[in-house]
Every structure is written in structure tokens, then in C-alpha cells.
Amino acid sequence: MDVLKKILKFISSMRFAIILLLVLAFACSIGSLIPQGNTYAWYYSNYSERTAAIILALHLDDAFHSWWFILITAFLCINLLACNITRFPSLVRRTKKYMSSLSEAPGDLNATFEGSPEEVFKKMGMKAPKESKDSSRRVLYSCKNVAGLWGAWFCHLGVLLLILGYALGQMTYKEYTVYGVPGDIKKIGDTSLVLSIDDFKVSLREDDTVEQYTADITVYDLEHSSEGQSAQISVNHPADLYGLRFYQNSTGWAAKISVEKGGEALQSSVVCAGDYLVFSDNPDLIVYFNAFYPDYVMIQGSGPATRSGSLNNPAYLYSVYYQGQILGMNVLMTDDVLTIDDYTVTFSEPQSYTLIQIKRDSFTFLAFIGGVVIMAGLFLAFYVQVCSLQAVEGEDGVWTFTGSCKKSNMVFRNKFKEVFNSDLKEKEKNV
Q: Which of 72, 219, 316, 334 measures 20 to 30 Å from 2, CA to CA?
């Protein structure tokens, strides 16, 4: 039993918390120094065979989701929880002690006063005093801002909630990316949801720079309902649908690529820059849409560029691949055509596409609450002054005042001296 108590005492101790924080800081440093999410081949080429094996064996390639990082975080949460649980009863007792009438002097500030003691309590900014009587004397006592005693406790609680919110959020976190033009319907990752891009607008300023991207979307759950949920999203104005948050992330250019074979239409599709079109009757043949230049200009020694964002001189940079091997790359103007054997390829109808980022983090609220609790705890710990004032009536009717303040004691002391010096001066004036 004694061993168990010692273990619990150590787990809830400040020493254990400091050790965990040092280990956590070291782990974060490793995770920051070693590039995350790469393959064994990458680590092997950049470090050595042995180092690459160690990195993968210790999960240093994904340090912040590794079992040992989660274990450190779990121990830190246990430490904070144990600390709060063990301190709670003593804080309750301490709070009750401050709020009750005490017979002992509560501080090292002393002064005497003849007259109504309630007047002194009022000048000191204290609440109306409580009275405690015993067989020999009369005692008045008041305190204020007792909540300040709980500042550190709430800080610990806030940190615990913040860590839990972040950790649980990372464990359940999902992120998807969907891009397309109005009219496109795209599946959202591994979910049963599909996203319909109903409309997309790019608002420009007078100087031709982008002011805002706005997309109208509708999301359908194919498994549960035929009716969708619609919303309008723009930069810094996401929407919540089906438990997911939809962000207007960025935009780019897309164009319609049409393919004819032997003079007859074969296929046509809107392709975003950075994507490609596979020939329907020849999967080995691919046209890659590298980039779009709305106001094309060729800069000597630099390459293709655009003078502005307006569609004054549209041009399309493309590459052609066959069985994974590049056949050629060039710039195609609006009236130009690309000929590949019997195929004729044209680019037309340039338009903006929207890139929508979709996230699911079910515990963001917990991290937010933790942050609010931390701010409240810091406010209580550093701003709220816990003060007490006691008055004891002597046999001659003179009251003896004692007081103390746990924080900003100098402010309380100056106020104490000011009140009693002013009273003394008033008495001398009356005499």
C-alpha cells in the first residue's frame, strides 16, 4: 500500500511533470529535425542504411503519431489529472478557510482604529464583514477574490483539455481535397459523400488582383439520403456539412480538351492544369495539361509567362506521353491544333477551377475549451488578488486590524497604509 502511495505521489508530482516535458521537448525536436513521412529509400539516400533502419524501427518518420509519442502524451495527461485530483481537496479546504471567519490574524499588516469597523472594510474595498463571536472577544472578517486561489488549478485543467483535444483530434483527423469546375460531381475520399460544384466565382480588384474566391456547393450522402445540403464557401468562410468542414482553399485554370480521330469526335473533357487526359481508345496515350497562360508572352531566357490575369492571349502548355515516355512538349494557342498520328487535339474554353479542402476534426471544440480555461486560469493566477482583512475588538473598544494579500501585496499594503493614515489625520484634525 505504501509503495502504491509513493507511485501515485510521484506520478502527480512536479518532478515527474518536468521530466515528461523535457522528454516531450526532445521528442518534438527529433520530429522537427527529421523530415517526416518519407520512404525507406529516401532516408537511405539522405542518411545511411543503418540510420534509415533506425528511423523506421523507432517510427521517427512519423514521430508525432508514433506509439512512444502517444505514450509520453498520455503520461503527461495522467500527471496533470492526478495533480488536479490530489490538489482539489486542499484547495476546497483553503477556500472555505478564507471564506469563513477566522480567529487567528490572517496577515502581517497591523493597525488600530476607533470607531465603526465596517467603514474600514468599505474603504479597503472588501465585502461586508462576517462576524464571529467567542467568550472573550468580537471578530469581524472579510475576504475578496478567493477565486484567485484556483488560478494554477485551472491552468492545469486547461492544459489537460488542450492536450486531449489535440491528441484525440489527431487520432480521428481526416482530410480530403476536391477540385473541379462548375458542374463537376466528385466523390469525397473514402466516405459515402459526393460533392457537387454548383458555381464558382473569382472576384477581382481594380488592379486585377484577386479579392475573393466563392464557391456554391451541394453535398449528398449516397447511402442515407437523396437530398443534399448546400452552402456557399469562400476564403476564411468555411461551411459545416455532414460533420465535415469545407474550406475554399485555392483556385487555378482549367480548359476543355477535345479529341478527334479521323475527323470524328472521340471524346471531350474539362481538365484542370496539373492533370491529364487519357485517350479513351488508347490508354497508353496521354495528354498532360502542364499550365495555362491567360495573357501569354515568351520571355527570352526565362520561358513562357503571362502579362496579366485577363484572357487577352490564352496559351496552353502541354506534354504528350506514350507508355510513360514523353513524346514532346509545347505551347498551344487558341486556334492551334495538336496532331498525333490520326488524333487531333484542341484546347478551348479556359475557366477557373476551385480547390476545396475538406477536414474532419471532432475534438477541435475540446482544444478550444482548453485554451479558454487556460486563459481564465492565467487571469485568476496573475490578475485576481486574494485579499483578507480581519478586525478584533479589544476590551477598550479599539479595533485591531490585520490583513494580507497573496498577490500584488505591495498594492494592498499601500492601500492599507493609506486608509489608516487618512483616518489618523482626520482624528488629529478633529482634535
A: 72
